[in-house]
């Protein structure tokens, strides 16, 4: 039976309440100031891979869209990350965070130290958006419904507990507080409008669940590799690699 619009939105929001990665213990550790400098660096190195693939995911999505109005509405997402005149973009802001924690931005941007599990999870998301229906691709983006809360918690926690945290290093998260609500308002409206059968509602809910799994699995991999007991996989970033000279000296 097809749910009402209100019932279906509540179902989507419940997925976030149950499964969003703000509940992962790594985030409690990070926001609570319990991460070591190297654990923070490992998070920055691996999360960069996700950030760098967001505009690629959106470009893959747009390549399949025949409706110019939908393309116009979606393309700002690419500019938000890649940048445009007057906006350096989220990827550059993330590399500024990398520099603030003592990493060489060029090393981070090379992707050399990204864990295999991170690559598999993020690349699976890009393929999902490229290959599944437009409805499912947009539904997967609705983790943005839950992002502003985690960004606000992150800003507060990092400022309180870490010396590297300031307005410059945390500019990625501050900007997303303004960008994400715009994106999610459009995405949610689209999903609620187009998921007009029980089958489509199930597919959209499954897509959002898949995306929460993508985010959760990245933190599981970080915990396994860098927290306790640390089991860093071959090829992944190791403490001491890719540091700025000033960080090496300290």
UniProtKB/TrEMBL annotation:
Enzyme Commission code(s) on record: 1.3.3.11
Protein name as catalogued: Pyrroloquinoline-quinone synthase
SUPFAM superfamilies: Heme oxygenase-like
Top-level taxonomic group: Bacteria
Family indicated by similarity: Belongs to the PqqC family.
Name of the encoding gene: pqqC
UniProt keyword terms in alphabetical order: Oxidoreductase, PQQ biosynthesis
GO-annotated molecular function: pyrroloquinoline-quinone synthase activity
InterPro entries, A to Z: Haem_Oase-like_multi-hlx, PqqC, PqqC-like, Thiaminase-2/PQQC
Domain Thiaminase-2/PQQC: 10-220
The protein's role, per its UniProt record: Ring cyclization and eight-electron oxidation of 3a-(2-amino-2-carboxyethyl)-4,5-dioxo-4,5,6,7,8,9-hexahydroquinoline-7,9-dicarboxylic-acid to PQQ.
Pathway stated in the Swiss-Prot or TrEMBL entry: Cofactor biosynthesis; pyrroloquinoline quinone biosynthesis
Reaction(s) catalysed (UniProt annotation): 6-(2-amino-2-carboxyethyl)-7,8-dioxo-1,2,3,4,7,8-hexahydroquinoline-2,4-dicarboxylate + 3 O2 = pyrroloquinoline quinone + 2 H2O2 + 2 H2O + H(+)
Gene Ontology annotations of biological process type: pyrroloquinoline quinone biosynthetic process
PANTHER family with a match to the protein in the record: 4-AMINOBENZOATE SYNTHASE, PQQC-LIKE PROTEIN
């Amino acid at each position: 039976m097809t749910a009402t619009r209100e019932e279906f939105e509540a179902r989507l929001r419940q997925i976030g309440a149950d499964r969003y990665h703000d509940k992962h213990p790594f985030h409690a550790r990070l926001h609570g100031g319990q991460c070591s400098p190297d654990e923070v660096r490992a998070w920055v190195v691996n999360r960069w891979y996700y950030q760098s693939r967001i505009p690629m995911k959106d470009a893959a999505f747009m390549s399949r869209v025949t409706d110019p109005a939908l393309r116009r509405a979606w393309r700002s997402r690419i500019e938000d990350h890649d940048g445009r005149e007057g906006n350096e973009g989220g990827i550059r802001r993330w590399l500024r965070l990398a520099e603030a924690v003592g990493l060489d931005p060029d090393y981070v941007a090379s992707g050399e130290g990204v864990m295999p599990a991170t690559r598999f999870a993020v690349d699976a998301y890009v393929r999902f958006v490229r290959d599944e229906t437009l409805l499912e691709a947009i539904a997967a983006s609705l983790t943005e419904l839950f992002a502003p809360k985690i960004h606000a918690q992150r800003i507060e926690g990092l400022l309180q507990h870490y010396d590297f945290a300031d307005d410059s290093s945390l500019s990625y998260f501050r900007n997303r507080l303004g960008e994400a609500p715009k994106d999610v308002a459009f995405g949610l409206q689209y999903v609620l409008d187009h998921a007009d059968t029980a089958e489509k509602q199930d597919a959209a809910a499954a897509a959002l669940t898949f995306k929460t799994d993508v985010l959760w699995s990245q933190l599981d991999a970080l915990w396994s590799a860098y927290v306790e007991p640390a089991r860093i996989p071959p090829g992944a970033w190791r403490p001491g690699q890719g540091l700025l000279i000033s960080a090496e000296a300290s």
